[in-house]
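FORM 12-B: Structure-to-Sequence Request
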């Protein structure tokens, strides 16, 4: 049985004081209201990683970054390495978010290197995949997502891929208020698991958590998370409000 995971992706939002207040609110609500064994991860902007880590110390909430460099170290002004994240220590990192793929031209080969750097420093990547609207409308969404998984992950050994979390996030559902139906989510999650099983065997495929992301809200979380292959969610907008985020966690 896979543990349910709910990860919040704050993107480029909040000041330091606001980040501290939001983390406090989430922690307090989780302590008083969340009784089930859900893994909660807060993926916050780089400048807040240290303080959020300190705030979450000794709690069940973990901290993640939203990206890391494909390079180990060196003359890459403005970049942040996996080793730096590990030194805080931050245990999780989102890689290949569609906003990174779209605005920062992150492609399969680059993401494969980022995954390697993260794993080399014992970080758990939350590897994102998902199709834009025009691909869904053309009917080639399954092929594209399979390709994203192959390009970013299939160079890994079975042992290494077993350390990952995958997030399926249809681009047309991110920040749009338009959620994939439970059937659409379950269908794609099953496609991803089948692809993993074909390469690594059923045991490995069954062990990898696959999260759904795209306008997850308190009123749709429970239904989405009850699909057999949906192991929780990656939550953007709704993770910026403690009340909504914790209600989503309770849906898991
Ligand atoms: C995201 O960006 O990872 C995301 C799922 O955003 P939202 O929940 O706002 O659609």
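FORM 12-B RESPONSE
SEQUENCE OUT:
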């Amino acid at each position: 049985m896979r543990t349910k995971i709910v990860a919040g992706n704050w993107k480029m939002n909040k000041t330091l004081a606001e980040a501290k207040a939001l983390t406090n609110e989430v922690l307090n609500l989780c302590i008083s209201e969340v009784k089930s064994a859900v893994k909660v991860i807060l993926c916050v902007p780089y400048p807040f990683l240290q303080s959020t880590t300190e705030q979450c110390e000794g709690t069940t909430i973990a901290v993640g970054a939203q990206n890391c460099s494909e390079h180990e170290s060196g003359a890459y002004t403005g970049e942040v390495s996996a080793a730096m994240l590990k030194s805080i220590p931050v245990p999780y990192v989102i890689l290949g978010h569609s906003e990174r793929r779209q605005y920062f031209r992150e492609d399969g080969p680059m993401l494969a290197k980022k995954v390697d750097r993260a794993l080399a420093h014992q970080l758990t990547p939350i590897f994102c995949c998902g199709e834009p609207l025009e691909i869904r409308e053309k009917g080639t969404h399954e092929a594209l997502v399979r390709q994203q998984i192959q390009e970013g992950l299939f160079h890994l050994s079975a042992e290494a891929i077993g350390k990952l979390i995958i997030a399926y996030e249809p681009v047309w559902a991110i920040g749009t208020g338009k959620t994939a139906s439970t059937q659409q989510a379950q269908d794609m999650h099953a496609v991803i698991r089948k692809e993993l099983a074909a390469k690594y065997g059923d045991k490995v495929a069954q062990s990898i958590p696959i999260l759904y992301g795209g306008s997850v809200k308190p009123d749709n979380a429970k239904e989405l998370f009850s699909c057999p292959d949906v192991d929780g969610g990656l939550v953007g907008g709704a993770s910026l409000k403690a009340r909504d985020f914790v209600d989503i966690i309770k849906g898991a």
